[in-house]
Amino acid sequence: MNRFIIAVTAAICATGVARAEVTQDDITNDQTNTSQIVTNGMGQQLQRFSPLDTLNKDNVKNLMPAWAFSLGGEKQRGQETQPLIYDGIMYITGSYSRLYAIDVKTGAELWQFDARLPEGILPCCDVINRGAALYGDKVYFGTLDARIVALNAKTGDVVWNKKIAEYKEGYSYTAAPLIVNGLVITGNSGGEFGIVGEVQARDAETGDLVWTRPVIEGHMGTLNGEESTMTGTLNATWPGDMWKTGGGATWLGGSYDAETDTLVFGTGNPAPWNSWLRDAGDKNDGTGDNLYAASRLGIDPATGEIKWHFQTTPREGWDYDGVNEVVAFTDAEGNKKFATADRNGFFYVLNREDGKFLNAWPFVKDISWASGIDENGRPIYVEENRPGNPAGAADGGKGEVVFSSPSFLGGKNWMPMAYSQNTGLFYVPSNEWGMDIWNEPITYKKGAAYLGSGFTIKPNYEDHIGSLKAIDPMTGEWKWEYKNDAPLWGGVMTTAGGLVFFGTPEGEFKALDDETGEELWSFQTGSGIVGQPVTWEQDGEQYVSVVSGWGGAVPLWGGEVAKKVNYLNQGGLVWTFKLPKQLASAN
Ligand code: CA
Q1: If exposure means fewest CB atoms within 10 Å of the residue's CB, which of 16, 204, 536, 537 is most exposed?
Q2: What is the whole-number distance in angstroms between the Cα of residue 191 and the centre of ligand 1?
């Protein structure tokens, strides 16, 4: 509290009037404060649920454009950001590590920051960025050369700029940073390059490191500049020296559960993809699980110590990263839970207190690599559907090719789902696709791709890949499904007005009925949508924004899926809509 008073006093002295600064209370209350959006996820719970109901099923047809803003430049692609809105300014990030401050009433640019990226950055999956963070008088975002930058939120001037990791080794950074109690908390990207996933906490004022926590067993954490503890137990679940380049990128960032004072971070695929190189013997005794890759971790925000872990895919071998967002919710019986839809095709419900497994159900059809999840949360593997061991194989060292579903891009990838407090349902953007996958020999080389696998991705159905599903977290039942030709790659938002917003690669921004999935409104944005919608209230009117600009991982990977998306145009536009007052009661 003292710190807050001092900050405000300083602001008054400097300018003569109190200057708006984002506080921890603003962040804590973001879900219920409908006049601003200061967190990624529209609240720390990541529900992406707005209590606003001015805009509803009856009047959404009157939702109309208020303004649009072009990100400019020659390099328009993969606009995956979520807008933040505070004190009259919208903050968005853009491809190639750019950040924009926009007048939220007019759409006019206030300032723009372009990170000077070096030659030789190594982003695996397009030059994207997923959003900024706000705290105090600063706005924070990460860059493709694995740095975290703090800018003055009013002027865009650089306050500090720190290196997270070495980009030449394959590290990058694309997630929205997380703010918790004066710390800026970041993950890292680069899981296809044999990097080591890590979570770092910095003083938000100075950028100084407070703690680091590598997520692969055997690596040492740090606290206040000293070594702290080892992650896991050396060689408990990794053979030999493989843990040293073990992957587990924390590339989607994390979240904070205030009720249990726990950071929750997901971890990506173990490296390399070829799981036979990470096999420590008997596959059923846990010695080859490769902790803590393909897991969710609960971390103490004060010390960086791991409080709990839940591994979705032990000895992962399909690129089923375990990074997907973990949404906090209270179920119909009042129990505090987490839900997360994994790349591997299963929707998990966990106990929020300790991360313990409660239940799991498929959220895509045709899962081939496992027949289900057992009572401990462990997959029941279909062993013959694991890509074969290339060691000693006749075919040029290529192991047996298998068909796996979902594909390596996942039943769901990074694009965030939403939860409605009104319906009690999760709205999960998923994709129905598979792949032929095989293993190859590989050795680690710094800064080079470290897969040991090849693959061809293909649709599972002729008429759709994308599939937005309404899922009951009590039973796993799908209440409805909305099919889309191209794969879905953008975020979802729900509102108390009974609406589910999402965009398609075909460029349509849509609102569906949250109970039936019926389409109530649609707007063509001119490029594919892979961004994350938001809504807020301003001058008594409800606004909705989404960033349009096709790109991301899908168009980079070819296979038969390329035919579904190769005609789509890139772009970079913020679209802001509003329901004019005089039309709010019209129907
Ligand atoms: Ca991966």
Answers
A1: 16
A2: 5
